[in-house]
Amino acid sequence: MPRPIQATIHTEALRHNLARARAAAPEARVWAVVKANAYGHGIERAFEGLRGADGFALLDLNEAERVRALGWRGPILLLEGVFEQRDLELCSRLGLWHTVHCDEQIDMLATHKTQVPHRVFLKMNSGMNRLGFTPQRYRAAWTRLNALPQVDEISLMTHFADSDGRRGVAEQMAVFNAVTADLPGERTVANSAATLRHTVGGPLQRPDLAAQVAADWVRPGIVVYGSAPDFPEYTAEQWGLQPAMTLAAKLIGVQELDAGAAVGYGCHFVAERPMRIGVAACGYADGYPRICPTGTPVLVDGVRTQTVGRVSMDMLAVDLTPVPDAGFGSEVTLWGRAANGALMPIDEVARMAGTVGYELMCGLAPRVPVVVD
Ligand SMILES: *Cc1c(COP(=O)(O)O)cnc(C)c1O
């Protein structure tokens, strides 16, 4: 028998979360962002739940090929555009729309011999300072692209640095609007946090900007997978999201500790009183962060308890005090949904690890068997 650990991808939750994103921006079309192998869920495994999207956005050309291989004929957007000249051939062949964020990408297009003209998304660096043309150089890039026979449609795009935080989107929207006011073309600006927080009806909407934040396309990634982009200000539950991934293991051992007994490497946890602990078949080699300290929440048989001691490569220990009936074979939910319906939000585990739900999903280890339900 294989080790008792498994990840489950919940098709119905993906569908639900996609609908949630759509409801936040009902006038916009929705890119389901499936970069990084659908945030660790697996593109092929997530596809059924996400096929109701209007398009798929990703980075890797190989992942674009995989989406086409699934039979998807609709839009696919390369969020970082092409990396070298010959990538443009694949864009032509597979009908990929691609971001243009630097002069080098325009140079490649200018020398590309193509039968099919390309649809490009011209990206502005409106304050994130990662990819994109500065506001000062944006129009020159647009004019240059517009003159190329290789390009037939130019859409306009930017990306927010702090749509989940204190700065919000107003400054970047103002920059984007000022430069693009009289340019034609569809627009896309919103990631998950902007889609939930700053569109019409969102809790941080600015009435003058909200419709522009939704624009023609929104680009939700993390919400589709059921994690809150702005945890702990809002939880996934408050946003009406459902976990799309469950990571669950079983107890493979139980220890009865006397007061003063230590648990695990480094003897970091010492029992203050007699207690029962369970040993779950999940460790950092499965993608559970080693940095999670004693006290990280976990469900045993659907009951909330906590980890004790250091996470090892293949195992971690949990306090069985709140679940006295648990024993060998009991269900341990590291994140996601337990059999009894109880939830262990990935965002709570991520917070204990000093990171975000994104990283935990993406870090699910290849050795963990994955099923789709
Ligand atoms: C990853 C990404 C998104 C999605 O971000 P989330 O925070 O997961 O919604 C949107 N746009 C671009 C350009 C991205 O790279």
Account of the 3D structure:
The protein is of the alpha/beta class and 373 residues long. The protein has helices at 11-24, 35-39, 43-50, 61-69, 87-94, 103-110, 135-146, 170-180, 192-197, 210-214, 346-352, 357-362, and strands at 5-9, 29-33, 55-58, 76-78, 97-100, 118-124, 151-158, 187-190, 217-218, 245-257, 262-263, 269-270, 275-280, 297-300, 303-308, 316-319, 331-337, 343-344, 370-372. The protein has two domains: 11-225, TIM Barrel, CATH 3.20.20.10; 245-372, Lyase, Ornithine Decarboxylase, Chain A, domain 1 (Beta Barrel). The protein starts with a strand and ends with a strand. It is built from twelve helices and 19 strands. The longest helix is centred in the first third of the chain and has 14 residues, at 11-24. Pathway: Amino-acid biosynthesis; D-alanine biosynthesis; D-alanine from L-alanine: step 1/1. InterPro entries: Ala_racemase (IPR000821), Ala_racemase/Decarboxylase_C (IPR009006), Ala_racemase_C (IPR011079), Ala_racemase_N (IPR001608), Ala_racemase_pyridoxalP-BS (IPR020622), PLP-binding_barrel (IPR029066).
Can you describe this structure in just a few lines?
By secondary structure, this protein is α/β, with parallel strands linked by helices.
